[in-house]
Amino acid sequence: MPRAKGGPKTRQRRNDRLKMAKGYYGGKSRLYRSATEAVDKSLLYAYRDRRAKKRDFRALWIARINAAVRSEGMTYSRFMEGLRKAGILLNRKILAEMAVHDATGFSRILATVQAKIKG
Questions:
Q1: Which of 12, 14, 31, 47 could make a disulfide contact with 27, Cβ separation 3.0–4.6 Å?
Q2: pLDDT at 59
Q3: Alpha-carbon dihedral of residues 56, 59, 63, 69, nearest 10 degrees?
């Protein structure tokens, strides 16, 4: 039985994998086996980190909101409770943006929340 070397399809599959490894250091960008291992690992990292990014940003938004709210003498959890009671439907991303870039608007929301909690 003759040795199977692979035809154009095999070469195309290898070239595709080497193109994905373009820019990797050393043999990882030139040797097929090393490139395959590196690309497989990087695809796993990419999949994992697309999900981790969502967690990281949520934590960042909460930290920003907490810092802005604490400067006014309230805690984050009490603020979120007040938002629900006041019926304000802004998500954490928008609240964090407001806390950083629109201090007057955020302070108005905070005043509404404080009035709702006290009343």
A1: 31
A2: 98
A3: 140
- CB contact at 8 A, 90 and 105: no
DSSP 25: S
User: Is the C-alpha dihedral spanning 23, 24, 30, 33 positive or negative?
Assistant: negative
Contacts of 14 (CB under 8 A, 6+ apart): 32
The DSSP line for 58-69 is HHHHHHHHHHHH
CATH of domain 8-118: 1.10.1900.20
pTM of the model: 0.79
Yes or no: say if 117 and 78 are a contact pair by the CB < 8 Å rule.
Answer: yes
Confidence of residue 56 (pLDDT cuts 50, 70, 90): very high
